[in-house]
Amino acid sequence: MSIATDLGTTPQSLFGVSRAVRIGDVNRMTMTVGDGEASTAALGVLVDDILGFTLYHRRGDRDGLVSATLSVDFARPTGWHGPHLTADGTVETLDRDGGLASARIVDAAGALVARATLWGSFVDGVTQSRPIATEITPAPLLEGACDPVDALGAAIERTETGARVTVPPNPVLANAIGSMHGGVLTCAHDLAAGAAAGGSMRSASLTVNFFTPVHVDVATVFDATVVRAGRRVCVVRVSALSPAGRELSTAAVTLRRDSDDATSC
Questions:
Q1: Cys-Cys link to 175, which of 91, 181, 218, 241 (CB 3.0-4.6 A)?
Q2: Each residue of 97-129: pLDDT tens digit?
Q3: Topology of domain 11-257, per CATH?
Q4: CA-based nearest residue to 67, from 177, 169, 153, 166
């Protein structure tokens, strides 16, 4: 069962993600690192938030922002030094309809954890609130939230072609406009890819394309298919599906083996 059952809980509090601060042209956020084993999936909310905030606060007279394509390259998928990761986001290109933002995430020792980019589109007719703090205040980590599977209440099963992750209905996984948070989607796509690869590999790169808002009042299935299985590299395609089978988002994930184990995924 998910630990995210209290309606006072948010995707940010589930993963210990702070509010953003503005430092010149840079937005900064932190994520509290738990005591459990590092998981690339746990970075989903941090990555989506820092990139989304960076574009949102340059939107001019537009009402809001929706994520279109998010990409992450994991420089070091494990072995992070806590207690916090720090993400700095900057705008790379911008026009009235949207733009591209990039982010660099480091651990407390200053070692690079990941680099990420987001293409976002500005929209009208939506109500969003993304306040900027005056100073960084690290967010506490809810008990058990260092495990993304527990945080999302996800159920994982292997299939003939890969794996399937089911995220049950849960209103606390919503973003500011009431659909599933893009970082939660990213997290679930990563979990499904890792399960399809057999758990012996870690994500090296991930690109998510968001097609349509995902409802949080119904279950969402993340169906992962192994496209290429090698001794050291595995490529997985993941589709997020509605109960009616509609494709809501898709991800291409490359995983690499983090040991000398030569068995294929």
A1: 181
A2: 999 999 999 999 999 999 999 999 999 988 777
A3: Porin (2.40.160)
A4: 177
